[in-house]
Amino acid sequence: MNTFLTRYLRPAVVLTLLLTVLTGLIYPGVVTAIAQLIFPYQAHGSLISVNGKVVGSELIGQQWISPRYFHGRPSATVDLNGTPAPYEADNSSASNLGPTSSSLINGNGSQVTVKAGQKPPAGATPVAGQKDTYYVPGSYQGVKNYADQFRKENGLAPNTPLPADIVTASGSGLDPDISPAAALLQVSRVANTRGLSESSVKQLVMDHIQGRFLFIFGEPHVNVLDLNLALDQLK
């Protein structure tokens, strides 16, 4: 028994405690201290403040609705109850739809039939030709619906080609960036709504295009929050 304790049990206990202190306390503490010292902005979440008030983060997108602003990508995030909640930062999620799924094109909503006189689900719309049947939208509306909505709100022709990022949700559902092409397609709407020249708004977009990381990784993109904050300063 004593041999078992000294040769096997004690080294195992000591090693477990040592690794717990090393990897659970010392290493995270050192990394946190270095991050706070060298990269304080990033360590605190890359938060953006205006007049001393935090308005967002460069890393997490927001839902922009007003026609006065550039809009970001669709978001398929839901709240903790499973209800669609665009850019719900505490419950990141994707549509999880494959490229061959019809729901990727038409959305992941569903049809429900309720008993006569029963109240339909919140946000549901009647299905034409089917009595007491309603369509309940899912967290992802689908490429077709997003494309139709984007073309309509920006006054584009029905056959206008659109970049993929503006009609699909990102893997996290929190993407803060859009492609330069997606931003440029919104220039006319934003300029007309604000009474600005299209050339000045277009130039603002061009000035906010960020290139590939290390000139190799990723694609050129525009941070929507940065662009909209600069838009508010445009005279």
Question: Which helices and strands appear, and what pairs or packs with what?
Answer:
Elements lengths: L1 H37 L1 H4 L3 E4 L2 E5 L44 H5 L3 E4 L11 E2 L6 E4 L6 H11 L23 E2 L1 H5 L2 H8 L3 H10 L1 E2 L10 E3 H9 L3
Antiparallel strand pairs: 1-2, 3-5, 4-5, 6-8, 7-8
Write up what this structure looks like.
This protein has 235 residues and is an alpha+beta fold. It folds into two domains: 2-42; 46-97 and 143-232, no CATH class. It is built from eight helices and eight strands. Helix 6 (187-194) packs across helix 7. The longest helix is centred in the first third of the chain and has 37 residues, at 2-38. It is flat and about 80 Å long.
Summing up helix and strand content along with how strands pair, one would put the structural category as: alpha+beta
| Radius of gyration over all CA atoms, rounded | 25 Å
Please give the oligomerization state of what you see: single chain
Number of discrete helical segments: 8
Strand order of the largest sheet: 3-5-4
Could you give the count of β-strands? 8
Proportion of helical residues: 25-40%
Order of helices and strands: HHEEHEEEHEHHHEEH
Poorly predicted segments = none
The biggest beta sheet reads: 3 strands, antiparallel
**What do the pLDDT scores average to?**
90
